[in-house]
Design a protein that fits this description.
It contains five helices and no strands. By secondary structure, it is mostly helical. It has one domain. Helix 3 runs antiparallel to helix 4 and helix 4 runs antiparallel to helix 5. The longest helix is centred in the middle third of the chain and has 21 residues. The radius of gyration is 19 Å and the shape is elongated. InterPro entries: DUF3017. This is DUF3017 domain-containing protein. Pfam families: DUF3017.
């Protein structure tokens, strides 16, 4: 394969109105920051608040996966949509239940 042909294949044409690549990773970064913030709160002996923040962040990820198109969810898209939403919702509920049940 010639170099010129290889260069032509690598360059994808810009679509009009296409969002930048980093913008499609924004929901994933928000979820990641929420979980990291929850872990920091848990390490500072605010277990319920930290767990609540983690549950809210994961639930936000499920909602983002449900509502946004596949081009805008970034790394939140790993499987089929219904499986991603069900898994993240299950994890969020499990984290919230653990935060509620564990005594002070």
């Amino acid at each position: 394969m010639s170099t010129e042909l290889h260069r032509r294949r690598r360059r994808a044409p810009k679509r009009r109105g296409a969002s930048p690549h980093w913008l499609s990773q924004l929901p994933y970064v928000i979820v990641l920051c929420g979980v990291a913030g929850g872990l920091v709160l848990c390490s500072l002996n605010y277990f319920r608040k930290g767990s609540g923040l983690m549950a809210a962040a994961v639930l936000f990820g499920a909602l983002a996966r449900l509502v946004l198109p596949p081009s805008q969810v970034g790394m939140l898209e790993t499987r089929k949509k219904w499986m991603d939403v069900a898994t993240m919702t299950g994890f969020a509920v499990a984290i919230a239940v653990v935060a509620w049940v564990v005594p002070d």
